[in-house]
UniProtKB/TrEMBL annotation:
Family to which this protein belongs: Belongs to the glycosyl hydrolase 3 family.
Protein's name according to its UniProt entry: Carbohydrate-binding protein
Domain of life: Bacteria
Domain Fibronectin type III-like: 745-816
Domain Cellulose binding type IV per the UniProt entry, residue ranges: 835-955
InterPro entries in the record: Actin-crosslinking, BXL, CBM6, Cellulose-bd_IV, Fn3-like, Galactose-bd-like_sf, GH, Glyco_hydro_3_C
Keywords per UniProt: Hydrolase, Signal
MF terms in GO: alpha-L-arabinofuranosidase activity; carbohydrate binding; xylan 1,4-beta-xylosidase activity
One Pfam family named in its UniProt record: Glyco_hydro_3_C
Organism field: Streptomyces nitrosporeus
GO BP annotations, alphabetical order: arabinan catabolic process; xylan catabolic process
Gene3D superfamilies with a match to the protein in the record: 2.60.120.380, Galactose-binding domain-like, Glycoside hydrolase family 3 C-terminal domain, Glycoside hydrolase, family 3, N-terminal domain, Immunoglobulins
C-alpha cells in the first residue's frame, strides 16, 4: 500500500485520527477562517475551499436546471417513506452530478425542513412535511437516508435539518419569541428533529431566526442538552443567513457582535452564514472575541473539528475511495419517472360523489379552467424546470386535445390613464430570441429585471391585460405573450417576467381608491412601496432614487373587457365535465418572509368555481396549493374535490392520470383542514396543548381531518391484535381491497390513554402507518412494532418521560377520524405520583395550565422563567397534585423584575411582594410563611413585571 506523507491523507486511519492530525496542522488564523460558510483553501496543505449550504428541499435548488419533485408538504402527503427515500437518493445524486461540473454546488445540503405545520397560516408551510411529529419524523428519516446514502463511511450528501426550534411564523420572525412549555417542547417540537438524528442520517441542524422562551435559537442551550445527546456523531450546526448579526442588530440580545459570536460558538454553532461570501466580518468578530477572552482556542477547535469530520465523511480527502465521487445521474429517465410517481402519490382526493374517475370516452368533452389550469408553479426552493407539465397539458394529452376546452378565468382589463390607456410596447420579446427552452418556456432569469426593454407608456389604444387578485388585494398583470408587469432596479415598469419571483417579488401591485375620484385608483408597487406614475419617459415607481409618493401617482380607471367568470361559464356550459384548477402562486401571499392572513380561497377564484358550478353541476375543484384552504361551500356543493401541493415538473401529467382513473389516488392530508379562520389559534400561540391545536388536541369539527384521503376502491380492516412485546408494542391487522380496481391504501395506527381527557393528553396520536398496494380482492397482514415509550408523555411533575400504568386504546383506520378497528392494552408499572415539592420545589415553567403568561429566559445562557404576557394584566399558573407531606412552613421564590406573587394551596394564601430588582436577569429571593399540608393544586398569580423562575418550600420542622 502506498505510504501517505501526512496522516490526514492516509485512508487507513480512522476519520477521527485524521481530523485531529489536520486540525493540529492548521494555524489559529486558518482555524478561524474555517468557521465561516465560505471557508478558504489552505494551499500549503493542499486543502481546498469548502462551502456549507446547498438548498435541496425537493430537488437541487438555486443552481439552474434540475429534476423538480413535489413540494415538501406534497412529499408528506404521500405518507410513503420508501418513495421519499428514493427521492432523496435522486436529489443527492443530482447534487453530486452538478458538483462535478460546478464547484458552486455544495455537498452539505440544507434540507429537509422538519418544522411542524402547527399553524396553516405559516408562510413556509410548503417546506414542512406535516403537523404531526411522528409523520414528520418518518418522512424526514426517509429523505435524509436517501440524501446520505448507505455507505458506512462516506456520505452522498450531508443533510442539515431546518429550523431549530419551534419556528412557525414569518411575521417578526427574527424578533418574536415562541413560548414553549416543557410538555410541548418534549412531546412535539423536539420530536420532529430527534428521530432523524437518531437514525444516523443527519449531519447537523440549522437554528431558526426566532427566539424560544425569550432566548435566540442561535444561543439555545438545547443544542448541547438535547440535540447532541441523541447521537455520537459530530453534528455540525450551521447558522441561518444573517442570524449571527441579528443577535445584536434586530434582537438587541447582546451589546456587541463579539459577545454574540462568542455566545453562539459556545452554545454549539459551528458555521457562520453571514455577510455572504465576505468572511472577513465574521472572522474579525471571532478574532475579537478571542482577544477579549470571550472565547478560548478550545472553543474554536471544537467547532473546526466537527466541520472537518463533515468534510472527511463527504470524501473530500479520499476521492479514489468515495463511492459517490463519480456519480453522474442527472435528469435520468428514472428521475423523471420518479418525479411523476411522487406527484401521483401526493394527490389527495378530498370528496367524490361518484363523478371520478372520469375515464376518457368518445364524445366526452372536458373543460379545464382556472388561474392555475395552465400553470406549473415553482417556489423559492425549486430548481429550474427542465420538463414542464401543467394540468391543461396533462389533460389534453390524456383526453385528446380536440376534446378539451380551456378558459383561464382572468379578468381582461384596460387601464385608463391621463386621457389614454396603459400600453405595453410590442418589442418585449427577448432581444436575442434565444431564451426560450426546448419546450417553449422563457427563462425568467434572462427576463426579470431587464432594463434594456422599453417601459410601459400611455396612448389612445392601450393594451389588454390579464389581471389576477391573489387575495388581500395583491394583483398581478400579464400580457397576452405571457409576460408579467415587473419593476427593475431602475424603477421602470416593463413586461419582463415570465413568473412572479425573487426574494422581493417585483410583479405584484395593489389598487388604492382615490378619494373624490369615483372609480379612480392608484397602483402601489408592493415590492418597492412606490406608486406607478406614467410620464413622458414611461411608467415608473421611482425616480432619481426616490420612491414615487401617492401624491405623484397616476390615477387609473379599470375598464373591464371581460370578466373571468363569464369566460369560465361559457366553456363550462359547453363541456361534459369541468375541472377547475385553483390555488396559490408560491411566491405570493404565503412564502418565506410572509404569512397568510386567511384560510379562505381568494375571492376571484371563489367566483370561478361558483360560475362553473352554476353552468355545469359536473364540476370538479382541483386545489393546487402549498397549504390548506377553508372551502366549506365547495365541499358542500361540488361532487368532487382534490388537493395536491405544487407537484413539480410532472404535476399536470399526474393530475390527469388520477382524474382519468389510471391511478387510484391515495395521498393523505398531512395536516388538519379547518373549516374557518375562527377555528385557528393565534399565529404566535405555540402551546398546542393549551389552545387545542392540531388533530392531537382540536375539539372542533374540521373540514377535512388529518390523515384523510379517498380513492377509487374500498378497503376493509379486520382481525386486529395488540400486546406488549418487551419494550415494544406489537400490533397486527389485515387490510383487504374490497373494491374493483388495484389501489393503494394508507393504514394508520393511533393510540390514546383511556384517561386522556382528564390528563390533557392527545385524543389520538399517530404512532405508525403503512402505505400498501393491493389488487382487487387481495389482502395483506400488516404488523407494526411501536416502542412503548410512544405511549408516554413528558411528566412536568418529575421532569422526565413517563409511561404511566393503565389502559391504552389502539386505533386503526384510514384517517384520524375514520377508525375501523380498536383494541386495548394494559401496561404495568409504578405511577409517577404527585409532585415532590418539598424535595425539589416547582420550576415555574413546568406548570400544568396557564393563563395570560409567557415563558422567558432566566439568564442569557440557560433556564426559563415565567412572566405576565400583557402589561397590567396578571398571569396565572396552575400546578396540579403537589405533595406537601406533613406540611410546609415557608415559601421561597427566585424572582426578578418587580410586582408581587400570590401563591394559593390548601386554602392558604401567601402574598409575596417583589421590589424592583433593577433588571430582568437580576434575581433575588423573596420569602413568606406558607403552611399547606397533603396533596393539593397550587395556583400562582403573577403581578407587574415579575419574572418567576422557581418556587421552593421549606418542610415544617426543618431548621430555618
Amino acid at each position: 500500500m502506498t505510504d501517505h506523507p501526512l496522516p490526514f491523507r492516509d485512508p487507513r486511519l480512522p476519520f477521527a485520527a485524521r481530523v485531529d492530525d489536520l486540525l493540529g496542522r492548521l494555524t489559529p488564523e486558518e482555524r478561524i477562517a474555517m468557521l465561516h460558510q465560505f471557508a478558504p483553501a489552505v494551499e500549503r496543505l493542499g486543502v481546498g475551499p469548502f462551502r456549507t449550504g446547498q438548498e435541496a428541499l425537493h430537488g437541487v435548488a438555486w443552481m439552474g436546471p434540475a429534476t423538480v419533485f413535489p413540494q415538501a408538504v406534497g412529499l408528506g402527503a404521500t405518507w410513503n417513506g420508501e418513495l421519499v427515500r428514493r427521492v432523496g437518493e435522486a436529489v443527492g445524486d443530482e447534487v453530486r452530478a452538478k458538483r462535478a461540473t460546478d464547484d458552486r454546488v455544495g455537498l452539505n445540503v440544507w434540507a429537509p425542513t422538519v418544522n411542524l405545520l402547527r399553524h396553516p397560516l405559516w408562510g413556509r408551510g410548503e417546506e414542512g412535511y406535516s403537523e404531526d411529529p411522528a409523520l414528520t419524523s418518518a418522512i424526514a428519516v426517509a429523505y435524509t437516508r436517501g440524501l446520505r446514502g448507505d455507505h458506512p463511511d462516506y456520505w452522498r450528501t450531508a443533510p442539515v435539518l431546518k429550523h431549530w426550534l419551534a419556528h412557525n411564523n414569518e411575521t417578526d420572525r427574527d424578533t418574536a419569541s415562541s413560548s414553549v412549555r416543557p410538555r410541548v417542547l418534549h412531546e412535539y417540537d423536539l420530536r420532529a428533529f430527534r428521530d432523524a438524528v437518531r437514525a444516523g442520517a443527519v449531519a447537523g441542524v440549522m437554528p431558526a431566526y426566532n427566539l424560544v422562551n425569550g432566548r435566540p435559537n442561535h444561543v439555545s442551550p438545547l443544542l448541547e442538552q438535547q440535540l447532541r445527546g441523541w447521537t455520537d456523531q459530530p453534528l455540525v450546526v450551521c447558522s441561518d443567513a444573517g442570524a449571527p448579526s441579528n443577535l445584536v442588530d434586530s434582537e438587541h440580545y447582546f451589546d456587541t457582535h463579539e459577545e454574540a459570536t462568542a455566545a453562539s460558538l459556545k452554545a454549539g454553532v459551528d458555521s457562520f452564514t453571514d455577510h455572504g461570501q465576505d468572511s472577513s466580518v465574521m472572522t474579525g468578530r471571532i478574532r475579537g472575541a478571542l482577544d477579549k477572552g470571550l472565547l478560548t482556542q478550545d472553543d474554536i477547535d471544537t467547532a473546526v473539528r466537527r466541520l472537518l469530520a463533515l468534510r472527511f465523511a463527504l470524501g473530500e480527502f479520499d476521492p479514489e475511495l468515495d463511492p459517490y465521487a463519480a456519480t453522474d445521474a442527472f435528469d435520468t429517465p428514472g428521475h423523471r419517472a420518479l418525479a411523476q410517481e411522487a406527484a401521483e402519490q401526493a394527490v389527495v382526493l378530498l370528496k367524490n360523489d361518484g363523478l371520478l374517475p372520469l375515464a376518457p370516452e368518445e364524445g366526452r368533452t372536458v373543460a379545464v379552467v382556472g388561474l392555475l389550469a395552465d400553470a406549473c408553479k415553482l417556489d423559492w426552493y425549486s430548481g429550474t424546470l427542465i420538463h414542464r407539465s401543467t394540468p391543461l397539458d396533462g389533460i389534453r394529452e390524456r383526453y385528446g386535445a380536440g376534446r378539451v376546452l380551456y378558459a383561464e378565468g382572468t379578468d381582461r382589463v384596460l387601464l385608463a390613464c391621463d386621457g389614454g390607456r396603459l400600453r405595453v410596447p410590442e418589442n418585449t420579446a427577448p432581444a436575442d430570441g434565444g431564451t426560450r427552452g426546448a419546450e417553449g418556456a422563457l427563462d425568467p432569469a434572462l427576463l426579470a429585471g431587464r432594463t434594456d426593454l422599453p417601459p410601459l407608456t400611455c396612448d389612445a389604444t392601450g393594451t389588454e391585460l390579464s389581471v389576477v387578485d391573489w387575495g388581500d388585494g395583491v394583483l398581478t398583470f400579464r400580457t397576452d405573450e405571457g409576460l408579467y408587469l415587473s419593476v427593475a432596479d431602475d424603477g421602470y415598469v416593463r413586461a419582463s417576467a415570465e413568473e412572479p419571483g425573487g426574494w422581493v417579488v417585483q410583479e405584484t401591485f395593489r389598487r388604492e381608491a382615490v378619494e373624490g375620484h369615483a372609480g379612480g385608483h392608484r397602483l402601489l408597487h408592493i415590492g418597492t412601496g412606490g406608486y406607478v406614475s406614467v410620464a413622458a419617459d414611461g411608467a415608473k415607481v421611482a425616480a432619481g432614487g426616490e420612491k414615487i409618493s401617492a401624491a405623484g401617482a397616476t390615477v387609473f380607471e379599470t375598464v373591464t373587457v371581460e370578466r373571468g367568470e363569464d369566460a369560465v361559464a361559457r366553456v363550462a356550459e359547453a363541456a361534459d365535465t369541468v375541472i377547475v384548477v385553483a390555488g396559490n402562486d408560491p411566491h405570493i401571499n404565503g412564502r418565506e418572509t410572509e404569512d397568510r392572513t386567511t384560510l379562505a380561497l381568494p375571492a376571484q377564484q371563489d367566483r370561478l368555481w361558483r360560475a362553473a358550478r352554476a353552468a355545469n353541476p359536473r364540476t370538479v375543484l382541483a386545489l393546487t396549493s402549498a397549504y390548506p384552504y377553508a372551502v366549506p361551500d365547495a365541499a358542500a356543493e361540488l361532487p368532487a374535490l382534490l388537493w395536491t401541493a405544487h407537484g413539480g415538473q410532472a404535476a399536470g401529467t399526474a393530475l390527469a392520470r388520477v382524474l382519468a382513473g389510471d391511478v387510484s389516488p391515495a395521498g393523505r392530508l398531512p395536516q388538519t383542514w379547518y373549516a374557518a379562520d375562527t377555528d385557528l389559534p393565534g399565529l404566535f400561540d405555540y402551546d398546542v396543548i393549551g389552545s387545542r391545536q392540531t388533530y392531537l388536541y382540536f375539539e372542533g369539527t374540521p373540514l377535512y381531518p388529518f390523515g384523510h384521503g379517498l380513492g377509487y376502491s374500498d378497503f376493509g380492516y379486520t382481525d386486529i391484535e395488540a400486546g406488549p412485546d418487551g419494550d415494544q408494542l406489537r400490533i397486527s391487522l389485515t387490510v383487504t381491497n374490497e373494491g374493483p380496481v388495484p389501489a393503494d391504501e394508507v393504514a394508520q395506527i393511533y393510540v390514546r390513554a383511556a384517561d386522556a381527557a382528564s390528563r390533557d393528553l392527545p385524543g389520538r396520536k399517530l404512532v405508525a402507518h403503512r402505505r400498501l398496494h393491493l389488487a382487487p380482492g387481495a389482502s395483506e397482514r400488516l404488523e407494526f412494532l411501536v416502542p412503548v415509550e410512544e405511549l408516554g408523555h413528558w411528566s412536568v411533575a418529575h421532569g422526565r418521560w413517563a409511561v404511566e400504568p393503565g389502559t391504552y386504546d389502539i386505533l386503526a383506520g384510514a384517517s384520524s377520524a375514520d377508525i375501523r378497528l380498536t383494541a386495548s392494552v394494559t401496561l404495568d408499572g409504578l405511577p409517577s405520583g404527585p409532585r415532590p415539592v418539598l424535595e425539589h420545589g416547582l420550576e415555574a415553567a413546568a406548570y400544568d395550565t396557564q393563563q395570560g403568561t409567557e415563558i422567558v429566559d432566566r439568564t442569557k445562557r440557560d433556564g426559563d422563567a415565567v412572566t405576565p404576557a400583557a402589561d397590567g394584566t396578571p398571569g396565572e399558573l396552575l400546578f396540579r397534585a403537589c405533595d406537601f407531606g406533613d406540611g410546609a412552613a415557608r415559601l421561597t421564590l427566585a424572582v426578578s423584575g418587580g410586582g408581587s406573587v400570590t401563591v394559593e394551596a390548601d386554602g392558604r394564601t401567601a402574598e409575596v411582594p417583589v421590589p424592583a430588582t433593577g433588571g430582568p436577569y437580576d434575581y433575588t429571593t423573596a420569602e413568606a410563611g406558607f403552611t399547606p399540608r397533603g396533596v393539593h393544586d397550587v395556583r400562582v398569580t403573577l403581578h407587574g413585571t415579575v419574572r418567576l423562575a422557581h418556587l421552593g418550600f421549606t418542610r415544617a420542622g426543618a431548621a430555618q
